[in-house]
């Protein structure tokens, strides 16, 4: 069975997985926090005159070796498919964004193939991102292609919600990505809870109880019904007036921001809405959509977790079919 190395290289994270091409089975995984931003800073400080590509390939070579050693598997010469921020201005090589509309079959992605070399004994396929007239994304388009690949009953139309530091809402019509919006929900929450005056009024508490859920739901409603800048300070007065504890306020602030993001979907109630979330954000977005009456199709966590792999396989299969000569010997 043919195998390849799936590399999802984000701003602050690095994930490498050994994958069977035919059925997307994962044979091994290697994860750390050596993201593109850290790698770029290391290149600036320690590059010593070598090219950026060579420096990044050196990092990638060492990580692949570490993965091979941990799995007791020889990975020499195996094809690497890399998506995320690796194609950005601080990545391996900056690739131009593809333009909208972008098909969900992966045939119109911008990409670049690097044959194996003396310093990096792996052929590598680098996938770029997508741009609209006023927005960009790198990585989420691959996720979306992978999500669609796993939807057996997809009719070619829908709105896909990808929560995160910078949440994406992506519109698909007739199997084409036709538009998307970026919501800085996660980053604004981090800034408000850690760097602003509101930080004095919130305390993180990961435990679950009904009061936290009720306060979060209240935040969802207030955030959805009001201009965000007019209600953020409620977080401060909630604590000053003894309405909520600092732990409860943490969930209230989260609800405000998620509610303000999701209220933009109310006009899409007749559309097929797909929630593509995992981890700690998953229950919050499910609760937020239920509170606002949004009937979303909540995709299984495993589908979302493996969406990058399926997206890379989809793009890889399209290009294997169209350009078999460049991949000869890669598997």
UniProtKB/TrEMBL annotation:
- Top-rank taxon, per record: Bacteria
Q: What is one GO biological process annotated to this record?
A: D-galactonate catabolic process
User: Its Gene Ontology molecular function terms?
Assistant: 2-dehydro-3-deoxygalactonokinase activity
Q: TM spans, by residue?
A: none
Question: Which Pfam families does the UniProt record give?
Answer: DGOK
Q: Which UniProt keywords apply?
A: Kinase, Transferase
Please give the name of this protein. Answer: 2-dehydro-3-deoxygalactonokinase
| Naturally occurring in which organism (per UniProt) | Cyclobacterium qasimii
């Amino acid at each position: 069975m043919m195998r390849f190395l799936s590399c999802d290289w984000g701003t602050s994270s690095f994930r490498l997985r050994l994958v069977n091409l035919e059925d997307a089975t994962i044979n091994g995984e290697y994860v750390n926090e050596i993201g593109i931003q850290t790698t770029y800073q290391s290149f600036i400080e320690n590059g010593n005159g070598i090219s950026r590509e060579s420096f990044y390939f050196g990092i990638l070579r060492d990580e692949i070796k570490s993965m091979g050693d941990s799995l007791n598997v020889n990975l020499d010469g195996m094809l690497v498919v890399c998506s995320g921020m690796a194609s950005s201005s601080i990545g391996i090589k900056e690739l131009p964004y593809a333009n909208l509309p972008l098909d969900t079959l992966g045939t119109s992605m911008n990409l670049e193939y690097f044959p194996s070399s003396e310093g990096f004994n792996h052929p590598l396929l680098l996938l770029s991102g997508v741009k609209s007239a006023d927005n960009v994304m790198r990585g989420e388009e691959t996720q979306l292609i992978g999500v669609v690949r796993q939807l057996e009953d997809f009719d070619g139309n829908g709105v896909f919600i990808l929560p995160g530091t910078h949440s994406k809402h992506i519109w698909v019509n007739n199997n084409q990505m036709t538009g998307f919006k970026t919501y800085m929900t996660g980053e604004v929450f981090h800034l408000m809870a850690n760097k602003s005056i509101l930080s004095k009024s919130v305390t993180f508490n990961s435990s679950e109880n009904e009061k936290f859920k009720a306060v979060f739901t209240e935040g969802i409603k207030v955030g959805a019904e009001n201009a965000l800048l007019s209600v953020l300070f409620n977080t401060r007065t909630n604590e000053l007036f003894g309405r909520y504890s600092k732990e409860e306020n943490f969930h209230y602030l989260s609800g405000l921001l998620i509610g303000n993001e999701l209220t933009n979907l109310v006009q899409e109630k007749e559309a097929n809405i797909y929630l593509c979330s995992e981890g700690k954000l998953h229950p919050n977005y499910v609760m937020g959509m239920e509170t606002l009456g949004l009937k979303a199709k909540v995709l299984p966590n495993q589908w979302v977790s493996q969406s990058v792999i399926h997206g890379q396989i989809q793009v890889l299969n399209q290009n294997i079919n169209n350009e078999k000569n460049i991949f000869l010997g890669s598997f």
